[in-house]
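wait is this the right file?? whatever heres the structure
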């Protein structure tokens, strides 16, 4: 097959490309330039997609002996990922920019261009597995549970998965780094990127305030309705947040307070006890499903990239995915994604559906 290997400049994508070459595919490497000012997006292990990263990707392609190109996707990335991120926070929701990048950049914009140019598949360094079930390509968890990225890929359609390659799905990160060293790839020991790539200093609140400005509001005790403090914008908070609330007085019982909900129109941030964060029902919209929803399905629900899982029953009701949790989860916020899996005793749980959380209940 003709394969386009998306090479970020990290060890995972370099080894994924190497495995595609070794498998006998006709591989071309491509690095996506996602910022108009790429020099500003990496500080040590923070950020990604910098000039440094593009050079690392090119060196890896040279070692593998494959053609290499840099494609400018900065405008599309800004519109579909960065601006979406800002708009979601302004609306009081908590988005996942990595999920959005996979969905709209790597497996929409990039894949569309790859197919138009005659490529059969896009290869990435994601830790997830693909499997053929009843003639359709399905998504499973990776062998390395600690690195599993099926959650941020769960919104991909069957058609997109049919043109995807994840060569690292059966490996651990330790194995991948060791293989990179054996292959003579200079990125073998390169640190993984952390946090949000377009906020390299990790100051999400500062980033959002710079773009949204100050929108004064109040912090309110959910139990009594008492005003506990002031703030400069609901975009500075997320559901489940405990630290940095700016509340001087402790709760009457001495226990910490947490953000329970955000009301962007009124600027109200409601806070209260930890037990009020417990959620037993999730209603999510814009589902991407791979299940025949003739009725409720036993599953495991996941609401964060790492952790946040619970046994559940899921059901497609009209255009909404309704997930009833058998065990409560905390800190579940509108805007997050919920992915539901079918447990597999042999591992590699199968992704059944993904949707964007609209509201929660108890």
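ok assuming it is, sequence goes like this
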């Amino acid at each position: 097959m003709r394969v386009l290997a998306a090479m970020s400049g990290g060890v995972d994508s370099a080894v994924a490309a190497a495995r595609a070459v070794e498998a006998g595919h006709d591989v071309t490497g491509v690095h996506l330039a996602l910022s108009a000012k790429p020099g500003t997006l990496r500080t040590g292990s923070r950020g990604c997609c910098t000039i440094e990263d593009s050079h690392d990707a090119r060196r890896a392609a040279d070692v593998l002996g494959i053609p290499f190109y840099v494609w400018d996707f900065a405008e599309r990335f800004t519109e579909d990922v960065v601006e979406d991120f800002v708009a979601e926070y302004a609306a009081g929701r908590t988005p996942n920019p990595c999920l959005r990048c996979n969905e709209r950049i790597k497996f929409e914009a990039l894949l569309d261009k790859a197919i138009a140019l005659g490529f059969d598949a896009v290869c990435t360094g994601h830790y997830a597995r693909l499997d053929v079930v009843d003639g359709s390509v399905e998504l499973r968890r990776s062998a390395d549970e600690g690195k599993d990225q099926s959650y941020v890929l769960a919104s991909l359609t069957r058609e997109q998965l049919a043109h995807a390659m994840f060569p690292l799905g059966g490996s651990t990160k330790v194995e991948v780094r060791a293989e990179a060293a054996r292959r003579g790839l200079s990125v073998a020991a390169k640190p993984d990127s952390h946090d949000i790539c377009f906020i390299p200093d990790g100051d999400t609140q500062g980033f959002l305030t710079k773009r949204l400005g100050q929108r004064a509001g109040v912090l309110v005790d959910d139990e009594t309705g008492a005003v506990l403090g002031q703030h400069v914008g609901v975009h500075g908070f997320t559901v489940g947040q405990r630290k940095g609330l700016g509340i001087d007085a402790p709760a009457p019982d001495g226990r910490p307070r947490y953000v329970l909900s955000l009301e962007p129109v009124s600027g109200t941030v409601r806070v209260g006890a930890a037990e009020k964060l417990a959620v037993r029902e999730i209603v999510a919209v814009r589902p991407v499903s791979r299940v025949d929803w003739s009725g409720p399905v036993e599953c495991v629900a996941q609401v964060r990239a790492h952790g946040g899982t619970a046994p559940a029953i899921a059901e497609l009701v009209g255009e909404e995915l309704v997930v009833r949790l058998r065990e409560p989860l905390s800190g579940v916020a509108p805007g997050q994604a919920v992915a539901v899996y079918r447990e597999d005793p042999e591992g590699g749980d199968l992704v059944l559906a993904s949707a964007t959380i609209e509201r929660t209940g108890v």
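The longest helix spans residues 97-116. so i think its the right one actually
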